[in-house]
Amino acid sequence: MLTGLARDGGLYVPETWPHFSDHEIRAMRSMSYPELATVIMRPFIGDTFTEHEFREMVEETYAGFDHPAVAPLRQLDGGLWLMELFHGPTIAFKDYAMQLLGRMFDKVLTRRGERVTIVGATSGDTGSAAIEACRDRAAIDCFILFPNDRVSEVQRRQMTTVQADNVHSIALEGTFDDCQDMLKALFNDMEFRDRHNLSAVNSINWARLMPQIVYYFWAATALGAPDRPVAFAVPSGNFGNVFSAYAAKNMGLPIERLMVGSNRNDILTRFFTGGTMQVTGVEPSLSPSMDIQVSSNFERLLFDLYDRDGPAVADVLTKFRETGSFTVSQGMLERAQELFEGHATDDTETTRVIAETWKRTAEIIDPHTAVGVDHAMAARAAGRIAAPVPIISLACAHPAKFPDAVEAAIGSRPPLPKHMADLLERPERMTVLANDKAAVSGFIAEHVAGGKGAA
Ligand SMILES: *Cc1c(COP(=O)(O)O)cnc(C)c1O
After folding, report:
1. Residue 233 near residue 376 (C-beta atoms within 8 A)
2. What pLDDT shows up at residue 354?
């Protein structure tokens, strides 16, 4: 949790997956969300927190969400459900992990008498979730890099209007992939990393993925698991959310299919179709949180496809960085296709799906959610998901987070939830920096500990 990225540049994964029996999964049906969350995450926590301590943090985290079910399901038609993951403070699914992560960090650091500098890169929603989770926490300084002019106004304002001395929004002149590369460069500078005790809260941090496993169990058991298998449609960018679903499957949840949705930036769809990961340029789309080419968590799936052979994965990824491409064997592709499938939805289709869903069901969905719904309906229509298997499509963000895209589809702007109704009037605070490592590391050094950390 505290380290984020391993020192050799690799990502951490659990050594083994905990496994729940059908009997244990059946018992989850009657649990509250915090109870379920405690049971699912407990095996990963070890003795870092006592049972009581951990349960208290989990309860406090989800008590701050604005729906009593925390992650409620809404039925769109006979076999299609939306799981609403926008009931946290920044109205996107990132809160489900980040709100807990902020508390876990603070608890451990305070106990050790240490501080960390959290540096994150965001394509939109991670940044506000991280800032909201870190604000005013005594043991943390938080710096968030986002691509200048490439996030929605609501997303930007959620980051730049938080008035807390320990959080800083940096608009980098570049794309999201440039932000991710910058983050890697800062972490690979061991002297800088150690001096400021850098830590990551991007989904490269395993502790970000862990709390997301919970809502897959929550939805599946509500719809009949383990006695009925389910399928999930997961709009994907960094492959973090859908990797949590994969973890749930490894932990015993009967998931029949994982639908990985992309927008026009369809590198994952192309991979699951042909077995080649091939980078092309990043194009802005209506679903900016998925405007990504290099999905950092894909490395974790690759590790399993290579039968957990770390050096082999490192070779593949080195080649990928050098050439922008790699291809897995036919056998590996077929193994991946047993569970995963990709589907790309362009902006025109996204707009059509928002409009049609609204007409058909009176639900207003955001453009990321629309990518998942489109995928779910296409898979059902093509007969790839059998009729008795419910499809749960993840509603990743509240539609008010992307008002322009929604207005273009349905002719009106969805209102922001009450707690952020005045967002567009709040004063902003951000710094625009060149895509240059010295500029970014200099800014961080100057501003840690409220400016007291300059070396
Ligand atoms: C972060 C995000 C995604 C992509 O999730 P990954 O875990 O990066 O695959 C999709 N939609 C929304 C609204 C997001 O905030």
Report:
1. yes
2. 98
94 assigned to active site? yes
- Is it true that domain 91-205+425-454 has CATH number 3.40.50.1100? yes
54-107 pLDDT, tens digit per residue, is 999 999 999 999 999 999 999 999 999 999 999 999 999 999 999 999 999 999
Query: So where are the chain's domains?
Result: 73-88+208-410, 91-205+425-454
Q: How far apart are CA 225 and CA 381, in angstroms?
A: 23
Q: How far is the CA of 446 from the centre of ligand 1 (A)?
A: 31
Give every residue of the chain whose pLDDT is below 70, as ranges.
450-455
CA of 126 to the centre of ligand 1 (A): 8
Domain 73-88+208-410 is of which CATH architecture? 3-Layer(aba) Sandwich (3.40)
Cβ neighbors of 338 (< 8 A, separation 6 or more) are: none
Beta-carbon contacts of 63 under 8 Å, excluding residues fewer than 6 positions away, are 34
Residue 368 in contact with ligand 1 by CB distance below 6 A? yes
- Whole-number pLDDT of residue 452: 59
